[in-house]
Write a structure and sequence with these properties.
The structure is a single chain. This protein has 530 residues and is mostly helical. The chain has one domain (2-528). Helices cover 83% and strands 0% of the residues. The chain is built from 19 helices and no strands. The chain has helices at 2-29, 33-71, 74-101, 103-110, 120-131, 134-150, 155-178, 180-183, 187-212, 226-258, 269-304, 308-344, 352-366, 369-384, 389-412, 416-443, 448-475, 481-502, 506-522. Helix 2 (33-71) runs antiparallel to helix 10. The longest helix has 39 residues, at 33-71. It is globular, with a radius of gyration of 23 Å.
Amino acid sequence: MRSASIMSFAVAMSRVSGLVREMVMSRLFGASMPYDAFRIGFQIPNLTRDLFAEGALSAAFVPAFTDALHNKGREEASRLANLVSTTLILVVGLICAMGAVFSPTLVHLAAPGFGQTPGKLELAASLTRIMFPFLLLVALAAQAMGILNALKQFAVPALSSTFFNIGSVLTGILLGVVLGPKLGISAIEGMAWGVLVGGAMQLGFQIPALIKAGFTFKPTIDFSDPGLRQILAMMGPAILGNAATQINVLVNSNLASEIIDPARGANGPVGWLNYAFRFMQLPLGLFGVAIASATLPAISRSAAAANWEEFRRTLSRSLGLVFLLTIPSSVGLVLVGKAMIGAVYQGGKFEYYDTQQTAVALSCFAIGLAGYSALKVLSPAFYALKDSRTPMLVSLGSVVVNYALARTMVDVFHFGHAGLALSTSGIALFSSITLFLLMRQRIGGLYGRLLWTSLSKAAVSSLAMAAAVAGILYFAGSWAFVLQLAVAIPVGAIVFYFAARALRVEELAMATDAMAGPLKRRIPFLRGTL
């Protein structure tokens, strides 16, 4: 929990800088044709990143690297890291080259509806070609993050995403807005080049920490190495499992590109879904990603030592903390989502209508927040057990369910982009519950009663918070968005905290102690209050 609190702070910095980046994008482009083209252009290499780099690679690399470090020593672990780095440069470099060549075909597959708007598909293909090398940079950054996390260093890799956001937006403004007219680069092309610079900064920020820890890159090729073979063997099913997730994303993007909004036509649904999911990234990163990143090295060490009781306890506590933090976050996003979106995005080309439609999508995404976050913890737990087949099969099953659900939401119920967000949440909940039941069976129990108690208490505390926030919003309906948030969020957080404390939620006490422990040791009067 202490490691997760460090990660949460660093991820908070990253997510806030990411929102600033999106604020700039919304002011410059709104939910327009260039923005839709940029999102698809960025989404294609980004999906490949999720599929290959931060998904399959991280899940397969961290347990193998931790095992080598624990049982074979630092020298063997360093050799394994160099083998993986060299393989990444060769394989991902080839993927980047092929992606640049076939970018028009990839865009057509991802968003066939773009062909209905003149120039939209061509612009998306051009932006895809510019941004595809981002995949190699972020793959190496993901490996660096895995090494540092295995060494119990969480702050630097988590903060590296902040440098991506800062580098991408500043470079994008400089090249696209300031120097663009002189260089013949449009504003949206400048943002695409900014993505590459940001990716380089995300990798570069972690290199000094790697060098300090004694890990320097030396090109090494040995495809017969047992450690590398283990990683590659686990990555096969992991890639298939992550491919299912990316297929779900592509299906929803494909359907969104064909939705005709009564007020905006074909320009709008893709952007609204993206803006909404950006807000989801804040609690998902703060709680789901941070807790998962801190959990994986710990349970990997437990698995390597065959300490199954410690494995069960750590995984159970992680899930309990996820529920404690994500359930009130979901309620909060539903209640104050419109005010948050309006305060951050509304202005320039992003109008009040865009705020309304994005808020609807955010409410639907928020329903699945606990499922998204639990998946971040549960899926890597199977890799720590050297089982990549189970999460793969669950993910593949989700493809069928997602397609049927998304089609039903759009074609039968005519829910539009909100239906796609709702189907995404449904799949996250379905997959997380399935993995939880399979994990419980695999390791002989997972403290299910304690988890159910924690979940129930978090839900009751969230209801108390919801009543307080809803009352504030009712009386503050005419206030500016910023003022609504300035009152509703602190009051809601306080009500939830004391409600959970009154119900004696065990994870709350443990999390408070983990995060406030250093302060209590230094500031005596806090010992009786935190």
